[in-house]
Amino acid sequence: MLNALVTPAILAVVVATPALAQTPGATPQSVDSNVEVLEAIVVTARRREESIRDVPGTISAVTAEQLESKGPIAGSGDLLNTVPGVRFNDVASENLAEVSIRGSGTQRATGADSGVGLFVNGAYAGSSTLGGRNFKALDYFDLERVEVLEGPQGALYGRNSEFGVVNLILAKPKFENSGYVRDMWTFDLDQNRVAGVINQTLGDTVAVRVGAEHYDQTGGFYYDPNHDKYYDSSSGFTARGQIRYRSGPLDVTLLVDGQDLELPTFVNSLLVPAGGVNAQIPRGYQQSRFVLPHTGDDGMQQKVKRSMLLASYDLSDHWTLESTTMVTDWTSNQQYAAAIDVATAIEMRQQGQIGIWPYGQVRTNVRDRTLYQDLHLTGKAADGSLSWIIGAEGLSQRDDYQLLVVSSPCAFTLTGSFCSGTPSQPVCVRPLPTSINCPTPFPLIYGTDARTKQSISSYAGYASLQYAIGDFTLVGEGRFTKDSKEATQGITALYTTTYTKIPTTYKFDADEPAYTFTASYKVPSFDSTLIYAKVGTGYRAGGVNNGTFNANAPNPFVFTYDNENTTGYEAGVKASVMPNIFVRLSGYLSRTTDAITSLNDGCTVTNACGVGGQFFTVNGGTIEARGVEASVDARFRLGQGVLSTNLSATNQKAEFDEVPTGVSGLPIQGSRVAQIPDWTYSAVVDYRQPITASVDAFINVSYSGQRGGGQDTVTVATPFIPLSDFDIFGARTGLNFNNVQVAAFVRNFTDEEVQVLKFTQAGYPLSARFNKPRTYGLSVMYSW
């Protein structure tokens, strides 16, 4: 019933993004007693300051105040769930999750570069290793705004920006004395987050900004009774210090920050039906969604150290030199165990089922070191009709990636015992008195230890030229990038130095040009209406798959894949239909060749492989994609208060138009590209009402939903798995008393249960990963 009501209601309005309104907490400028003016945000997404409404393309900006008004930021999805065409593929793990724009995601190919450029303060923050397709918690602490550019952005931003760019702008030191302290408690998680930021001037030319946030959590939803811990717990801290010097034409900010966090990891619930559909568990097994005992370890840890130097120098009234330097060193480690523990495995044997080996364990350890430098010059001439950018960029990354997989050193049979341990301390557990003892010595290896060392160097020169002829504007952007990637990978039998794959070095070198051409026209009789059309290109870098070949796998594992390239076309209109209503409509087409595609080797813990499936990346063919995005942003006076509405909807589709022949395991021609819902929707309604001269009340209701689409790439061995449809609501309400704010919030108000990831075997359910249930919380903030 809810779906039947929500979808027509959303579609009945030409809907939109929350990007273009003035911030909900700001005091609106009154036009008359009933109408408010929407103020446009100034952005720097095209490496120059400009009004978001003047950018001829699909661009969104979400301010810190708009994010705060919806409730606590618990992950990257909270930054982006109101931006049309943008989707956060949340699979309950920060390491595995990724940002997707216009269907760019490659699902769980976690060692591949993202097709979306991830930037912080204009510096590249992504990487081609595990965890590099998502932002870190540190990146969304003390934000100023989020900027999103959709469509190919390879000309301005380079490699891995072929479907768009997300740039997080951190709050810089301001020349004022201000700050805040906030305490936020989430009851269902028993989580407390304490944050504080102090901004202080040290004279006319120097300002500092220092902040930190501490996470403490003792509860959760997903519980492991064997280790008395919650899979979805967070603990640790983030911290940042900045100093800014501004004098005359020079403006320089030095930033140093870091994080040390224990973050939620994922857990899957077995959903095997009875009736013999699964040979190892013929009687079926329905595991609890929330209580899942494991024998092995589960957890995730991320540590980050980062320094940034941001500088600008006004050479004259028309020339500005800007520099961005960033150095980062981060590690991300994750552990996840077999689906069941020893006690459950013994229970299955007592029922006459082979069951699942309970000692399975996977460990991933990643270290990434990045040096990024951008230097560009902006200028204007001809009374502002001509503007240009010329710049150069360099990127150097060093990645170390370890994938350790523990497997049974003995054949796993109905009559056998459970073999485990190490070569020096073997372990044999007899599940039944009649079980045959483990062979001596154990005949098989204990698992594999795959290690990849990778170095990436990327250098580019780029330029942009914009020329306005009356109401008509032309923009041309171009870049030439030289990339070099070298990866050495070797795999040893676990606990030994014996290679199961001799170390091999792979090299990738590419000289890639990219361009964007845009034409726009401001309708003379409608000053706030902009019509535009553009074409652009971008590419994503190839790489090496980290994993092992399994002879029993239905899809053969491959070790390397090449670059992909995308050409995109877009046309759209932006219009202020009234001073308080802004509408945007855009449509796009794109064609991607040598599409980087995620495949599953088809293994499961209950088929001939005996181990969990591995996702790896291939060049899957040519993809044709198209979509329409609509938006409206409005603000009204309602009684003595102000009502703001931000709505959005996107319809999209992508298919494999061409697939190489003679290669097994590739996508089926004509099949749909994974992780692209047919429809995505969002809505935010915010109301502010003054009560007295010093007290005002507010309420914010948010919604996001999706319909249709498939989860994984469809192959001969992998059937179509539909994405879960969902409607998620949240709300936040409270009071402002002078400098004190007290608020209550609820997330997932209707307690919607969503399978964010589904696993099947031979078309039957095997296991699933679920979203977080409803949570309530309170926050108290004092600001000055």
Essential attributes:
784 residues, mainly beta, Maltoporin, Chain A, 22-stranded antiparallel β-barrel, five-stranded mixed sheet, 5 helices, 4% helix, globular, disordered N terminus
What does this structure look like?
By secondary structure, this protein is mainly beta. The protein has a single domain, classed as Beta Barrel (Maltoporin, Chain A), CATH 2.40.170.20. The protein is about 5% helix and about 55% strand. The protein has five helices and 43 strands. The chain has a 22-stranded antiparallel β-barrel. Strands 3-8-9-6-7 form a five-stranded mixed sheet. A four-stranded antiparallel sheet has the order 18-17-42-41, with no helix packed on it. The protein is globular, with a radius of gyration of 27 Å. The two termini are about 45 Å apart. About 50% of the residues are buried.
Residue share in helix = under 10%
The major beta sheet can be summarized as: 22 strands, antiparallel, barrel
For this structure, the CATH topology is: Maltoporin, Chain A
Give Rg in angstroms.
Answer: 27 Å
Shape: globular
In CATH, the architecture is Beta Barrel
Measured between the Cα atoms of the first and last residue, the distance is: 46 Å
The counted number of beta strands is: 43
Residue windows where pLDDT falls under 50 for at least 5 positions: 1-35
Tally of helical segments: 5
Mean pLDDT: 89
Beta-strand content: over 45%
CATH superfamily: TonB-dependent receptor, beta-barrel domain
CATH class category name: Mainly Beta
Pairing-aware structural class of the strands and helices?
Answer: mainly beta
Number of domains: 1
